Amino acid sequence: MTETLKVTLEKRAGLAVIYTEGYINNQGGEEIARVAYEQIDAGEKALVLNLQGTKIVNSIGISILIEIIEKMLEIDGTLSFCCLTPTIEKTFHIMGLSQYAKIFPDEASAITELTA
Amino acid sequence: MANDAVLREVSLTLPMLPDMEIAASKTATAMAELMEMGSDRIDEVRMAIVEACVNAFEHSQASDRKVYVTFAVIGDTAPEKLQITIRDSGVGFKPEAVEEPRIEEKLRAKSKRGWGLKIIKGLMDEVAIESSSTGTSIVMSKYR
What we know:
A: 116 residues, Transcription Regulator spoIIAA, 4 helices, 43% helix, B: 144 residues, Heat Shock Protein 90
């Protein structure tokens, strides 16, 4: 019984959107980080993590997302989130992630603000 | 007010294997749906139980490599709250000694982990922890 996270990427003008589908646990977080670090290495400074396909996360997975936030802060970049379930958004607020990563209700509003 | 009668109870024994916390979250969902809890509140229960199970898997050092979970629907005549007990027979810990994680410190720290209890307390209505050298029980409840 292993839940596998599917991660896909779409490049947009001025940013990259990472889509997830499934449970963000340790392995899922590492897969997101792998894709994110490839984009950072390629010079991308704005990443959006679209979690529409993710209904559950655990704190080990989120701790890997914190590593990505740290990396983005180091390069004066931003990691933003969109399309969170109310519970995932509440969890991010409990943890304080929203102080360091913007949370948008949908992808369109994220792109509008980040590419303005 | 509820008189804390157990209207329905389900028990699970989980081996400490990858993603077994999802089995617990599915049972929690079924129990919460049975008592007609709102979907957002069910999601919060799911997230909290995942954290409690992952904590036990990662930290308990239980020699039997098992976690025991009991789901109880509590109420007087109608369901009022879902009470979940997660128990292990591990080495225990001192809950009062667990430092509350702070994002500004975690961002600079080598280890970004240690969020489980904070998330559980933030998502559930009631949380009680009992721990000794023979094991740990977390009892957490969510009202309908």
